[in-house]
Write a structure and sequence with these properties.
By secondary structure, the chain is an alpha/beta fold. It has one domain: Divalent-metal-dependent TIM barrel enzymes (TIM Barrel, Alpha-Beta Barrel), CATH 3.20.20. The protein is built from eight helices and eight strands; from the N terminus they run βαβαβαβαβαβαβαβα. Strands 1-2-3-4-5-6-7-8 form an eight-stranded parallel β-barrel. Helix 3 (78-98) packs parallel to helix 4 and helix 4 (116-135) packs across helix 5. The N and C termini lie close together (9 Å).
Length: 252
């Protein structure tokens, strides 16, 4: 397993050179660039700007794990769905141009006026379409376990069953809902064969971190665990170094 950073609360206000420097200093080997943050890495970048961003990663020991979009596919409005699909495809092209390996997307709720099964099938079809599109660019699609209702792991499994393409993967998100129903072990095993990335948060919280890492090791997961931290801190560098040590104990 490898440790990286998602530009959420920590990293949101860092430009790309600062982000790369800080990740290198703290031992974070990769980064997922969340859309809308100061790094400015967005689909609107022209070819010259993309080459410059790609060069910064080539010149750095920090790897571009991927791009974190806010694209979502639950809307019953066909125009909204198409807009999100088109935007996700633009992120796939950008990710390819920068040398990244995946784009994070998300489910974000279950419209009350639509049967749940229909919404889940629609999200799955979107994932299948995007994974097939991404295959041509060498870019995977990572479905974050996210959203009211859609963060239920049985629902995530239903979505992924509708998207059998190997480029369609799950971004495990370490939510409280992971412990619901049959519990962490059973929920984890629903999607363990589809895992792409892992978002981790607040490693000193009550979430069962030791058991999660045991499950990851049992599943022979050797990908990226990415710190997506929502708790603000006045000294992120110091806390990132501390989290690095905590992570090393969990991952060893």
């Amino acid at each position: 397993m490898q440790l990286g950073l998602v530009t959420y609360m920590w990293g949101a206000d860092w430009d790309l050179p600062t982000l790369l420097k800080n990740c290198e200093e703290t031992g974070f080997a990769g980064v997922e660039l969340r859309s809308g943050h100061k790094h400015g890495v967005e689909p609107a970048l022209d070819a010259a700007a993309r080459k410059e961003v790609a060069k910064q990663f080539v010149d750095s020991p920090v790897e571009l794990v991927g791009l974190g979009s806010a694209c979502e596919f639950h809307s019953p409005d066909p125009a909204v769905l198409k807009k999100n699909l088109d935007e996700a495809k633009s992120f796939i092209q950008l990710c390819h141009d920068l040398g990244g390996t995946g784009v994070k997307v998300r489910p974000n709720g279950l419209p009350q006026e639509v049967p749940v099964e229909k919404t889940l099938a629609q999200i799955g079809a979107a994932m299948q379409e995007l994974a097939a599109f991404g295959e041509g660019y060498g870019v995977a699609i990572r479905l974050e376990v996210h959203g009211k209702g859609t963060s239920s792991l049985p629902h995530i499994k239903t979505i992924m069953d509708a998207a059998p393409h190997p480029g369609a993967t799950v971004c495990w998100n370490c939510n409280g809902e992971d412990l619901a129903g049959a519990g962490l072990d059973a929920n984890f095993r629903l999607v363990q064969n589809r895992l792409g990335t892992i978002h981790i948060h607040d490693l000193v919280s009550d979430y069962p971190w030791p058991r999660l890492f045991e499950l990851l090791k049992e599943a022979k997961f050797d990908g990226w665990t990415l710190l997506e931290e929502g708790n603000k801190t006045a000294d992120p560098i110091r806390v990132m170094k501390y989290y690095r040590r905590v992570w090393e104990q969990l991952a060893r």
